UniProtKB/TrEMBL annotation:
InterPro entries in the record: LpqE-like (IPR007410), Lxx211020-like (IPR058248)
UniProt keyword DNA damage, yes or no: no
Keywords: Signal
Protein name from the UniProt record: Copper chaperone PCu(A)C
PANTHER family membership: BLR7088 PROTEIN, COPPER CHAPERONE PCU(A)C
Signal sequence interval, chain numbering: 1-28
Lineage of origin: Bacteria, Bacillati, Actinomycetota, Actinomycetes, Kitasatosporales
Organism for this UniProt entry: Streptomyces niphimycinicus
Length: 167
């Protein structure tokens, strides 16, 4: 699993994720590769990322917590979320959910001109080996690492276990 070429290999997986989330409109963004470009550039351009709606849900137990967020990509190049670091947990893993099964993955696609959405019941961040039990009202800092883009640092609020974002 080398995140070397963010453009082409992720497309099929990205489409599956997008379909699973019911965002079929985003499929149009996957057809941007016409195999033309020669020198230097990165095909359709660079990813342009921003993060919204991040939260950690207050865990019922002390040793594990889940994190959710949306990474928007306003750029013409795809990217991948490759890891997350936080002082709250010595280990953060990326999980996808298929049906009721969770699977650890090494990266999550952030398709060009689209977004990666982590949400309760879907893809999520799993935080283990917590430094303490996070409490509602607390803010936790997360650093998101990407295959192409520079790391993004955010402050993430802790929400009640039953919290569901509205959109
Ligand atoms: Cu999980």
């Amino acid at each position: 699993m080398t995140p070397a070429a963010p453009g082409i290999p992720g497309v099929r997986k990205a489409a599956a994720v997008v379909l699973a989330l019911g965002l079929s409109a985003a499929l149009a963004a996957c057809s941007g590769d016409d195999g033309g470009g020669g020198g230097g550039g990165k095909g359709g351009g660079d990813p342009k990322l921003s993060v919204t709606g991040a939260y950690v849900s207050q865990p019922p137990m002390t040793d594990m917590a889940a994190g959710y967020l949306t990474v928007r990509n306003a750029g013409g190049g795809a990217d991948e979320l490759t890891s997350v670091t936080t002082p709250l947990a010595s280990e953060v893993t990326l999980h996808t959910t298929k049906g009721t099964r969770m699977k650890q993955v090494s990266s999550l696609d952030v398709p060009a001109d689209s977004r990666l959405e982590l949400s309760s019941g879907g893809d999520h961040l799993m935080l283990t080996n917590l430094s303490h039990r996070p409490k509602v009202g607390e803010k936790v800092s997360f650093t998101l690492h990407f295959a192409t883009s520079d790391p993004i640092e955010i402050k993430v609020p802790v929400e009640p276990t039953t919290y569901r974002p509205k959109d």
